[in-house]
Design a protein that fits this description.
Blueprint lengths: L1 H4 L7 H18 L4 H24 L6 H14 L6 H17 L4 H6 L1 H14 L5 H13 L3 H25 L28 H16 L6 H24 L11 H13 L4 H19 L7 H4 L2
Length: about 300
């Protein structure tokens, strides 16, 4: 199977993945059809679909089916029809932001910082727990921009523009009280029940090994690869912070990690020295995600306590 997924993608490959994604979103939402779920489904579909185009923009993977397949399977495992609107909107805004920041045209990028600021504000208003993405963008801007002050001004101008517009609308409709949810606090009690996260622990181990291998062979990589991998790794750490601090039992938060994890893991599989290792690693990922998906149907708590 790994050899099949190692083939180069054709011009119609990404549209086929997007069509499959569309059918998956439709089926999951049809199982629990509500108008609210339709809006959530539209934003989540748009955000996840943008992710397919972000692979080429980031440029860390060969143009093969492997990262797209892993990305699709991760979405299948973590997505459900009753997705929170805040998570759905942030899937869209995050993908759009990554697409802009990963462009190689610096002239185009600086013209879009106003849009990036607006997207950050929209994402924050719908899901305040994603505030850490703002710092990810600021760090990327500081490391890559030649006119840091001007671009930070553009970023915050776009952010403030959306926030002020939102406050103005809320005031006009008579909602002038402060919502404390816009200052998300971390619960002092940490989660102790990790079921069904046990099932995807092999994926976490593979991810750690992939990152460790990257740093062990860091000097052998080109400056471009180092920069792009650091970009993906920084985004992964940002989303991992959000997941650890705020996920709780809302496992749909794991969708924020789908894109960077699929990039890192697919690179790790491609760099394994033996073919059987690549094949075994791929099937471990597939089986782990299937078990996670069907975990609500499994009575494994009893087995885990034996």
């Amino acid at each position: 199977m790994f050899r099949l997924l190692s083939k180069e993608i054709k011009i119609f490959s990404i549209p086929l993945y997007v069509i499959f994604l569309f059918l998956m979103v439709v089926v999951f939402n049809a199982l629990d059809f509500r108008l609210f779920n339709v809006f959530s489904g539209v934003f989540s579909f748009a955000g996840i679909a943008l992710g397919y185009f972000t692979f080429n923009s980031i440029g860390l993977n060969h143009r093969t089916h492997l990262p797209l397949f892993i990305y699709t399977f991760l979405v299948f495992a973590f997505y459900n029809g009753d997705l929170d609107i805040g998570i759905s909107v942030n899937l869209f805004t995050n993908a759009f932001i990554l697409l802009i920041l990963s462009t190689r045209d610096q002239v185009t990028k600086k013209d879009y910082y106003l849009i990036v600021g607006s997207l950050l504000a929209i994402g924050y208003l719908f899901l305040p727990t994603t505030w850490a993405v703002i710092f990810f963008v600021l760090m990327h801007l500081s490391a890559t921009s030649d006119r840091i002050g001007l671009n930070i001004f553009r970023l915050f101008f776009g952010f403030i523009l959306i926030i002020l517009s939102y406050l103005g609308v809320m005031y006009l409709i008579g909602n002038d009280s402060f919502n404390p949810e816009y200052v998300p606090f971390v619960s002092m009690g940490f989660q102790t029940d990790f079921y069904p996260l046990y099932f995807i622990s092999p994926l976490a181990v593979l991810l750690i090994l992939a990152i460790a291998n990257h740093f062990m062979t860091f000097q052998q990589k080109s400056p471009t690869t180092r920069f792009r991998y650091t970009f993906v790794l920084l985004y992964t750490i940002t989303q991992l912070f959000i997941v650890i601090m705020y996920m709780g039992k809302t496992y749909e938060y794991l969708l924020f990690l789908v894109l960077p994890v699929s990039i890192i893991v697919s690179r790790a599989l491609n760099l394994m020295p033996k073919y059987w290792m690549k094949e075994l690693g791929l099937w471990i990922i597939i089986v782990s995600l299937i078990l996670f998906k069907i975990s609500p149907l499994l009575n494994t708590r009893y087995l885990l306590n034996i």
